[in-house]
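User: My collaborator and I are trying to settle a disagreement about how two of our proteins should look. Neither of us wants to argue from intuition anymore, so we agreed to look at predicted structures for both before our next call. Could you fold the first one, then the second, and keep them clearly separated?

Assistant: That sounds like a sensible way to settle it. I'll keep them separate. The first protein:
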Amino acid sequence: MKSLVQGVRRFRTEVFAQQREYFKKLAAGQHPQALFITCSDSRVVPNIITQTAPGELFVLRNAGNIVPPPGMMASGEAATIEFAVEHLNVEHIIVCGHTQCGAMKALVNPEIAEGMPVVRDWLKYAESTRRILKDNYQDYTGDALVNIAAQEHVLMQLEILQTHPVVASRLVQGKLTLHGWMYKMEAGEVFAYDDTDGHFQPLAEEPMEVAARK
């Protein structure tokens, strides 16, 4: 905790003090350019990855960057999506998975979730991803399977997003675009799904073994 408190003090005396007018402007309202849905993993920091400032991203995080389907009881995820699209009028939604994802490891190896009943129940929302792996990737194991799981999972969340009424409506109007990203944390590289060829393609230069959409 000591380092966190020291960090708050540095923010107040150094960062905030130097950008007081910018933060004052932010206090009057937010106008983010995108809703960024990603994992709670502490190693995944959206504003660092995208080099964006406060106020530029509306961020939704949970274990495994899961988008539950609409209609479930009082979903915080659904409320966040609705608020971002309907009230903040974001024009882009990014679902960003990542390598070495603990949630995907637990999905591939259910024994990891033993003793964590809430985690086990939460991962039921990733059942479609688990089924895709079972039926299409029997030859993969270990980290390769986990990373493929993360990629397939991103694509499934994009499909589920389209079933949310507010998202479906904006897509029909042409006012919203969905993006699937993968963050390769060990290389600092981001890959974007290209639906023209069914692969994740690097946004920069480094190649990555990626899953093709079956």
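The second protein, kept apart from the first:
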Amino acid sequence: PLYDGRCRRLPPENRPDKPAALRVAVPDRTISLTDRLQGECAQNLAKECGDFILKRSDGVYAYQLAVVVDDALSGVTEVVRGRDLLSSAPRQIFLYRCLGYPPPSYLHTPLLLDESGERLSKRGGSSNLAELRRRFSSPEPILGALAHAAGLLPRPEPAALADLIAVYDEKKLVRDDIRLPAVFP
């Protein structure tokens, strides 16, 4: 939801008892990037996300600030994340610029989806690693099938990690999400 700034200038005596979240006041400006796989991405911060949280009311620093500071101080120049996080990249670029750090280049990969189209995640309990271990005796068939689905191999044949490093080419990667049942019939 778009934050409307309703508490931005609220006097201290009118604030609720709980601590306030710390937000960054964003300008009415469009931040753009060219993702190395997904292409052009632009977001008008004021119109599409509003003032976003830097530190939550419980005192925990928010993901947007934490990842920018951590990556900048670690010297990260290339960020590879899932396509579901592409919309947060303009906010991160804004923070990089505010803090005086050069933004990295971004590549947002397709997501792995289960048979119902839901994103696979450990948090959701749907990683299916146990099922994959049961069906395959080694990682090579899994790596080969995933590499084929991602566009790196012409056929879903077993492949070692070293083989995939040798054939990796961003221009071959698919942009759309990958359904596992199609990968592992």
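Some points you might bring to the call about the second protein. Helices lie at 45-48, 63-74, 89-99, 129-135, 139-150, 161-167, 180-183. The chain has a mean pLDDT of 89.
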